[in-house]
Amino acid sequence: MKARVYVMLKNGVLDPQGEAVHHALGALGFDGVESVRQGKVIELDLAEGTTEAQVGEMCEKLLANTVIESYRIEM
Amino acid sequence: MKARVYVMLKNGVLDPQGEAVHHALGALGFDGVESVRQGKVIELDLAEGTTEAQVGEMCEKLLANTVIESYRIEM
Asked: How many Å lie between the alpha carbon of B28 and the closest alpha carbon of chain A?
């Protein structure tokens, strides 16, 4: 079974990667870009029966730095 | 208007980041994880009227390395 975890920086946390992409897009002539935020998407191939709670525990312990990041799980 | 771009490594391309996460999950005692793939999610805040084709051009020129990565756009 597959699960997908989306990890994004919380609002208000500076996103240097997003800023760099935004700047580069401008330099390439893409003017209509107001802001860019970049995060991670983690695709997990799991044994049958793995619960969302277990995936949540993986997020809390490893996949997301919950001080500055928020995560969303798609089972 | 918002657009989201998902960038993942193409199948068959070695994913060292995914391997590292897989290994770390095992070390933390999460046994039921068969494989892990990690990619990027890029949230773009765009001027009204920006087309999917323009976002595609951003992907081709900057957001994805199309030699080893594939991308999916959500407008």
From this structure: 8
Domains and CATH numbers, chain A: 2-74 (3.30.1280.10)
**Residue with structure tokens 């525990």?**
A57
Tokens 């079974």 label which residue?
Answer: A1
Q: What is the pLDDT of residue A5?
A: 98
Task: Determine the pLDDT at residue B5.
Answer: 98
Kind and range of the H or E run holding A33: strand A33-46
Q: Do B61 and A28 touch (CB under 8 A)?
A: yes
Task: Report, as an integer, the average pLDDT of A25-34.
Answer: 95
CA B47 to chain centre: 23
Residue of chain A minimizing CA distance to B42: A38
Contact criterion met (CB < 8 Å) for B30 and A54:
yes
Cβ–Cβ < 8 Å for A26, A34: no
Nearest to A41 by CA among B23, B62, B69: B69
Cα atoms found within 13 Å of the Cα of residue B31, Cβ hemisphere only = 1
- Is residue A1 classed as helix, strand or coil in its secondary structure? coil
DSSP SS3 for B51? coil
Q: Choose among A28, A34, A62: nearest Cβ to B24.
A: A62
